């Protein structure tokens, strides 16, 4: 088992000095955008700084890639949500269009929902969406997925508990 060490600013500084340029290039190729790559490279090292303990790194680039990949996925999800939201806004009549502040709050809420859903196992997420978005009853969901009503009930309890945990207890 690898030893856990307290993260020192010297450790992060060395990691940054040795790998920032490489990580920035890797992110540029993934994102095809220098500005977003710079932001995500910065955010990667901020995440490293926030860790209280750091596993002894045998593969620092793999470690940084894992963090950066998670940040890139969140970045792409946010872009997709933002694009879908903008397309929805474009279809609204002028008097209904929300203010910039309302748009930001709605986009933030959509991002929180996406994070909650991503944290659920695929089957639980599927059951939750069939119930909450498609409006199917538990028996309809059970029949559609070929599972028992009890499985649907347990999945819904799990999904709702995750929502409660994130929304009311901060994660």
From TrEMBL:
Keyword Coiled coil: no
GO molecular function, one term: sigma factor activity
Residue stretches making up the RNA polymerase sigma-70 region domain: 18-80
Keywords carried by this UniProt record: Sigma factor, Transcription, Transcription regulation
Coiled coil stretches, renumbered: none
Protein's GO biological process: DNA-templated transcription initiation
InterPro entries for this protein: RNA_pol_sigma-70-like (IPR039425), RNA_pol_sigma-70_dom (IPR014284), RNA_pol_sigma70_r2 (IPR007627), RNA_pol_sigma70_r4_t2 (IPR013249), RNA_pol_sigma_r2 (IPR013325), RNA_pol_sigma_r3/r4-like (IPR013324), WH-like_DNA-bd_sf (IPR036388)
SUPFAM superfamilies with a match to the protein in the record: Sigma2 domain of RNA polymerase sigma factors, Sigma3 and sigma4 domains of RNA polymerase sigma factors
Signal peptide: none
Residue ranges constituting the RNA polymerase sigma factor 70 region 4 type domain according to the UniProt record: 111-163
Family the entry assigns: Belongs to the sigma-70 factor family. ECF subfamily.
PANTHER family with a match to the protein in the record: RNA POLYMERASE ECF-TYPE SIGMA FACTO, RNA POLYMERASE SIGMA FACTOR FECI-RELATED
Protein's UniProt name: RNA polymerase sigma-70 factor, ECF subfamily
Biological source species: Chitinasiproducens palmae
């Amino acid at each position: 088992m690898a030893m856990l060490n307290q993260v020192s600013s010297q450790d992060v500084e060395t990691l940054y000095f040795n790998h920032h340029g490489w990580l920035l290039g890797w992110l540029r190729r993934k994102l095809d955008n220098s500005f977003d790559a710079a932001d995500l490279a910065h955010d990667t090292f901020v995440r490293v700084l926030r860790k209280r303990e750091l596993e002894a790194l045998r593969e620092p680039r793999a470690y940084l890639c894992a963090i950066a990949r998670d940040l890139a996925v969140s970045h792409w999800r946010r872009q997709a949500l933002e694009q879908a939201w903008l397309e929805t806004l474009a279809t609204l009549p002028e008097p209904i269009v929300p203010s910039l502040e309302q748009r930001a709050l709605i986009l933030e809420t959509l991002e929180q929902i996406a994070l909650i859903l991503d944290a659920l196992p695929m089957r639980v997420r599927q059951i939750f969406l069939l119930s909450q978005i498609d409006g199917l009853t538990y028996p309809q969901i059970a029949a559609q997925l070929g599972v028992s009503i009890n499985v649907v009930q347990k999945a819904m309890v799990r999904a709702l508990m995750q929502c409660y945990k994130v929304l009311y207890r901060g994660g």
